[in-house]
Design a protein that fits this description.
It is a single chain. By secondary structure, this protein is mostly helical. The protein has four helices and no strands. The chain has one domain. It is 77% helix and 0% strand. Its main location: membrane.
């Protein structure tokens, strides 16, 4: 079997996409915590104004997270199952922090997800 340059992905090739993903995962985690606060204000104190302002911002943050996670997944050649897991981690408070640590560890070790 012949291995081409396209088949070989080095750690150096993944450095920038990993940095972008790590930043997006951190911002997404904070954004989810902010969303929890906004939901408590909305349903606990019957005030929909903060939700109306913050929810679209949170949506944009999550879309950026999705794009950057998919970019890293394609470049690192993750499995579909691993990619979906990382994408879903951005939906649950605190999970994006956990996913970021796991992804960083595996990518720096040269392991696939």
């Amino acid at each position: 079997m012949v291995t081409t340059a396209r088949d070989e992905t080095t750690k150096a090739d993944l450095r920038k996409p990993l940095q972008r993903f790590r930043g997006a995962a951190f911002v997404t985690g904070l954004g989810l915590l902010g969303l929890v606060v906004v939901m408590v204000i909305r349903y606990g104190f019957d005030n929909a104004t903060p939700s109306a302002v913050y929810s679209p911002i949170h949506g944009v943050i999550y879309m950026v997270y999705l794009v950057l996670a998919i970019d890293l997944a394609l470049k690192a050649r993750w499995s579909v199952k691993g990619t979906i897991g990382v994408l879903l981690a951005g939906c649950v408070p605190f999970f994006s922090f956990v996913a970021e640590r796991a992804v960083t560890r595996r990518v720096t070790e040269g392991r696939k997800l």
